[in-house]
Design a protein that fits this description.
The protein is an alpha/beta fold. Among the domains are: about 1-190, no CATH class; about 310-445, 3-Layer(aba) Sandwich (Rossmann fold). Helix content is about 50%, strand content about 15%. It has a six-stranded parallel beta sheet with strand order 2-1-3-4-5-11, sandwiched between helices. Strands 7-6-8-9-10-12 form a six-stranded mixed beta sheet, sandwiched between helices. The longest helix is centred in the middle third of the chain and has 29 residues, at about 170-195. It is globular. It starts with a helix and ends in a 21-residue tail after the last strand.
Length: about 500
Amino acid sequence: MVVAAALALNTTRFGRYTRAAGSNEEAANRVGIRVDRHLIKVYALSGLLSGLAGVLNLAHYSSTTLTSGAQDNLNAIAAVVLGGTSLFGGYGTVVGTVIGVFIPAVLQSGFTILQVQSFWQTVAVGGYSSWPSTSISSDAADATTVDPRPGGAGPFPPAAGRSHQGGTPMHTKALTVGAAALLVLAAVSGCSSASGSGSGGKASAKSITFIAGKTGDPFYITMKCGAQAESGKLGVKFSATGSVDWSVPEEVSSVSSVTAYHPDGVLIAPVDPNSLEGPIRTMEGNGTKVAIVDTTLTDPTIGITRISSNNVQGGQKAADAMAQLVGSKGEVVVLTPDLTTTTTNARIQGFKQELAAKFPGIRIDDVRQVGDTAQGAASAVGDELSAHPGLVGIFTANSETGEGVSTGLKDAGKQGRIKVVSFDAGPEQVSALKSGAVDALISQDPYGIGQQAVDQLVNSFDGKPVNGSIQTDLTIITRQNVDSPGVARFLYQTDCGS
């Protein structure tokens, strides 16, 4: 594909026309190129290739979600700019773009191998990726316009404000620095892997890494805090990484990077029950003990222990809270990020079971996938209100959907009239509860999950018995009990100092 694209761009009339249209649209029109028609062809080809990429992604990972690849457009732009393509058009290479794709990915993997905290990984990779864009004025000066006419290779009349200085020195520097960084990371990570593979002995010499499903989520931050505190207590070296978004490709990349430096133990929240099985098996095959936390995998033989909230019970508690709020009758809907995540599916199952068994007067009108974003849930609220005028309550299966529902009801003027029961108790959810935007929260104990996962991993290091399955408690939080001491441990943190 790369070879074909490079040949098309550099040796065909289509490629010459593309460069000319990007460099100086007015000049291209004057020499007979129908720029509008040509741009339609370019955009159609782009859409075709994007569709092909989606099919290949689905074939490789065996699953997808509504928000899968939400950030890929920004990553693609960063790769193109890093690869030397001018933001002003007229200059760029396919090979440079391929290199631009690899640099941030390999840097991210290298930082993970070096056990740099995920926050600083994002800062470093983002800073490097944005560096070429700080010289946009240089880009404008360096843009070279190509003569699109058959056999034409000389300078073509430049657009206003451009000169024929040729080359893209800033991008050359970026690629050079990137390549040097990759060589340094390769050398250091090689040393790290060599030293890590020889670790052994007592628990105090061991290392544990946490791979979060979504690093910025207060639930996973709180879980990290619990694991970190317990590791410090037991004398185990601790590090954390994970996906910025709830994404199979991102987590597969994180697992591969962590596998490369051979930690003794890993606690991981798989974002998909099937797609992560292969990478985690590979990790186990390298000698790493794995604790599966929060979410789970289809294959029960993977991992030494599985620790999560009793999510079926959580769904039942949500049904009990909803029944009390709406008077045990009326129409409700369920909003969930997707129908593949094991935890949210279990919550929905418990919610349905409890309503059917105890509250037959409450009818579920819809179970809707809205993606793992507040925006998706907010837009879905208007649709549900239109489709179900008698709606009295909404159950949201995770924190992101809960935040979106609050916004959607406020926009529709229904806040307070439609009762909302939501999962999780991050700072924003607690604030929404106190303000009346949400009526009840079903909260988990992520701190305790992190602690217990480290305990089980250390037991396995020391040859002690390991509990293969642990389910932690949940609680219902309302405006009446949110400030009580007994609820404090169920409130999530945004950093390990809070």
